[in-house]
Amino acid sequence: MNRMKLEVNSADDMQRLGAALANNAQAHDLLLLNGDLGAGKTTMTQGLGRALGVRRPVKSPTFTIVREYREAKLPLFHMDFYRLESDDLSSIDLNGYLAEPGLVVIEWPQLIMKDLPDEYLQLIITRVDNSWNSTKRVVDFQPHGKRNEEWVKAVLAEYNR
């Protein structure tokens, strides 16, 4: 599958994309979110959580590393490795989370790529311009594996309806 790119024009659209990801997610899916600070990674995850039925606020796990939302119709495990000390995963049972029948979302995955499975969906979120108040983004979908290619097709079909 060729890489697909999508222009997102607002925070609401980013949350709508998150909802489309959630609506087409399956147990054991792994979603990697790359982008600068303020790119929209947590905003997307908020839309994802809402679509999965998470009732409490979905917050960035920057300081806690992992936030669990087991009450969702598909358990959501939201991770942020921005502050992970020197690639030290010893305090996190990453394989345990990946083995659970839920959806794992990882922000700043570049710090732990060597510890991840070969199949995942990576999204790279880039500002269209460098203005901090701009809400325009380009989301570059990079699926690894057949399941993730199918996930992208379903997400884009739903988002573009």
UniProtKB/TrEMBL annotation:
Cellular compartment(s): Cytoplasm
Q: Which family does it belong to?
A: Belongs to the TsaE family.
The protein's GO terms of the molecular function aspect are:
ATP binding; hydrolase activity; metal ion binding
A GO CC term assigned to this protein in UniProt: cytoplasm
Enumerate the Pfam families for this protein.
TsaE
Protein source organism: Lactobacillus amylolyticus DSM 11664
Q: What name goes with this protein?
A: tRNA threonylcarbamoyladenosine biosynthesis protein TsaE
- Keywords assigned by UniProt, alphabetized: ATP-binding, Cytoplasm, Hydrolase, Magnesium, Metal-binding, Nucleotide-binding, tRNA processing
GO BP annotation list = tRNA threonylcarbamoyladenosine modification
- InterPro entries with a match to the protein in the record: P-loop_NTPase, T6A_TsaE
| Higher taxonomy | Bacteria, Bacillati, Bacillota, Bacilli, Lactobacillales
